[in-house]
Design brief:
The chain is mainly α and 254 residues long. It has one domain. It has eleven helices and two strands. A two-stranded antiparallel ribbon has the order 1-2. It is elongated and about 60 Å long. The chain starts with a helix and ends with a helix.
């Protein structure tokens, strides 16, 4: 690829990324809901359960904080694919796809746009970390890195789902079928240890989000089930696979 072509592709990625940022800025209700929902989990569910139990000497509300951060990334990232279906209905996507850049560049621009949106939401949630007595603030950069890699994987997954669906209802059904098992089997709300039934342990270990929750929990609370290199390795490989799968499906979209 010559320099002129490479520059054009980079500009295409930037243009799509910038469009997604502007859309995100206009949708204030989306930003508010993405912050309120995790806080409700933390301060209603977390405080209710935390009044009667702790996990490994850590208050339950503090314990689920990394899991709720991961939940915010999961929900915000996967449901970002809904915009593919919506843009298709408005014929906006058709105008974007005829641009003189490859579909891979368009896909990457959307992935980066979605990751930026989700990362901004997570940064706002990190502002509340001072309310949790067990949180190590020096672990926030590592936790943010893990969550960013996860957002790349999940945005790619959401775009992959949206690329072969033409109705909003169909996307919501399929994405919900994917999102809730990933969340509830991630250890976000419970410790991953030998007390779980054997069949459930296997499902939890096969879930890539488990390693996100474990990595973030290790960074913020020092409570790891798996070594950090395993957590980073699994979610990085998963992100690469989702980018490859998502870009392939997006390229074949009509």
């Amino acid at each position: 690829m010559d320099y002129g072509r490479f520059r054009k592709e980079c500009l295409g990625v930037y243009a799509v990324w910038w469009r997604e940022i502007k859309v995100f800025q206009r949708e204030k209700s989306r930003v508010v809901s993405s912050i309120v929902q995790p806080l409700m989990w933390l301060f209603l569910f977390g405080n209710a359960m935390g009044a009667s139990l702790d996990v490994n000497g850590v208050n339950y509300r503090d314990y689920i904080y990394p899991g709720i951060l991961s939940m915010s990334v999961l929900f915000g990232s996967v449901f970002f694919g809904l915009y593919i279906v919506w843009d298709r209905k408005l014929d906006v996507l058709k105008a974007v796809l005829v641009a003189p850049v490859s579909r891979i560049s368009i896909f990457l621009g959307k992935v980066l746009g979605g990751c930026t949106d989700v990362t901004l939401q997570v940064l706002i949630l990190f502002l509340f970390s001072f309310l949790f007595s067990s949180i190590n603030p020096w672990g926030i950069p590592l936790a943010l890195l893990i969550l960013f890699i996860t957002s790349i994987a999940m945005v790619s997954m959401g775009l992959a789902i949206g690329s072969f669906l033409e109705s909003l209802e169909g996307f919501q059904v399929i994405s919900t079928f994917v999102v809730f098992p990933l969340f509830f089997l991630s250890g976000a709300l419970f410790p991953v240890d030998d007390r779980l039934p054997g069949w459930l342990q296997e499902l939890v270990r096969l879930n890539p989000l488990t390693y996100t929750v474990d990595g973030v929990r290790g960074a913020l609370l020092g409570l790891n089930t798996f070594p950090l290199y395993v957590d980073l390795g699994v979610i990085t490989v998963f992100a690469v696979l989702m980018i490859l799968a998502g870009s392939a499906l997006f390229s074949r979209m009509k």
